[in-house]
Amino acid sequence: MFLLSRIVFMLSGMAIGFLVVYAVKQWNLPDSQASAFTIALQIGLALGNLFFGFLSDRMGHKFTLEIGALLGILSVLLAVFAPSPGWFYLVLFTQGVLAAVTFISGISIVYEFTTAENRPTYIGLANTVPGVAGAIAPLIGGWLAAAVSYRAMFIVAAAIGAVSWILLRFTVSEPRHANRASV
User: Fold this and answer.
1) Is residue 62 one of the residues assigned to a domain?
2) pTM listed for this prediction
3) Backbone angles phi, psi at 170, to 5 degrees
4) How far is residue 130's CA from residue 100's CA, in Å, rounded to a whole number?
5) Computed from CA positions of residues 103, 135, 95, 153, in that sequence, does the dihedral angle turn out positive or negative?
6) Is 161 among the domain residues?
7) Which of 55, 114, 116, 134 could form a cystine bridge with 10, CB 3.0-4.6 A?
8) Which domain holds residue 94?
9) How confident is the model over 34-78, as pLDDT tens digits?
10) Could you tell me the CATH number of the domain that includes residue 78?
């Protein structure tokens, strides 16, 4: 179920590459504005790494991945309902935090699911299978943006993110607790 939740999560990432493009087009911003948004993303990434590294050590990687999924939903919904371009600093900051959570806990939780003998197989599957979904997600997102609208694509991404969160929250056991119970 963890792999399924990660596949769905990767599909929800269809909006990531289009957030800045949408903001620039929506408010007729100069292209230079994209670099300012990128700074917000990098600040979110740096602070997210610090905070969620600490939090995941104490609360578990599953918990922080759940928060990450909620941040992804929040980010694209903020993009949909942003009343001004200034809101996109928060949108991109949130995406940076999400990237930190995904990197820290998305990789580390796999170590908690298995023993040392099976770890290479689990790591390979946990990175390859969702990676395929991550590779096609922007293609689906681009198609949706062109066929319908950016906002519609963002809403679809948020809905898929909600499904990902539900799967992770209610069908995946916290591996730290499961491993303690089996010892």
Assistant:
1) yes
2) 0.93
3) -110, -10
4) 17
5) negative
6) yes
7) 134
8) 2-176
9) 899 999 999 999 999 999 999 999 999 999 999 999 999 999 999
10) 1.20.1250.20
